Amino acid sequence: MTEQTPEQHIPGTGARLEGKTAIVTGASRGIGLAIARRLAAEGARVCITARNIGPLKEAAAEFPEGSVLVVAGKSDDPDHRAEVLETVTRAWGQLDILVNNAGVNPVYGPLTELDPAAGRRILDVNLLGTLGWVQDVCAYAALDFTGRGGAILNLSSVSAQTPAHGIGFYGISKAAVEQLTRTLAVELAPSVRVNALAPAVVKTQFARALYEGREEKVSASYPLKRLGTPEDIAGAAAFLVSEDAAWITGQILNLDGGLLAAGGSA
């Protein structure tokens, strides 16, 4: 049996992202913040982005010293993306991981009542914003993302795979994100891996309208009898962007407490 030297990495240990640098969008709270915390806990340096600087600074205070940068701005704004990439370049000079978590859903109701302007906003952020981040990161030569063998993780939703009451167009946008993920995985191989996570209802402020005041009733349809937590998503995210998932690309991982297997809907 070969003895493990201190320099060698043991898959699955707490430092599996040591030396890696990540960008996590929409990371001032909820799933994005939980993912960013988990990546930092596993050794990564993380740049967190969101629209408002105040919540970002509050979130950053919880990270180990020297492990986090904050840049405020809109995820679908090319100038914001450029500022993030320049900031990461100045501070760390490399990028290994991109987590596209930022998303919006400004409407609730049937598709027959969808305001076209709201629909365009959803697509601009959830789909085109996600693609914009990928395009910009891959084109930014100073960070050498493709040369370093980067990992991209997109956030989808089980509403992409089954009709979801009240959030139909959000689910449609996430279905597009899932196909975007598969297409990018083929186009960017073999240098970059691209995967997605598709959560069911997770207890966050973003999803509060889907369970608040009736959590017991909603969770009863889940075989695991509870809703998800941001930490449930963060653990899967850390795995997919790590070398433990080195032969995984183009996949959509459902995180749903067994909901779809049981024939449930989002």
UniProtKB/TrEMBL annotation:
One of its GO terms (molecular function) is oxidoreductase activity. It holds the Pfam family adh_short_C2. The keyword Signal does not apply. It comes from the Bacteria. Keywords: Oxidoreductase. The keyword Glycoprotein does not apply. PROSITE patterns: ADH_SHORT. Belongs to the short-chain dehydrogenases/reductases (SDR) family. PANTHER family: DEHYDROGENASE/REDUCTASE (SDR FAMILY) MEMBER 4, DEHYDROGENASE_REDUCTASE 4. This is SDR family oxidoreductase. The lineage of its organism: Bacteria, Bacillati, Actinomycetota, Actinomycetes, Micrococcales.
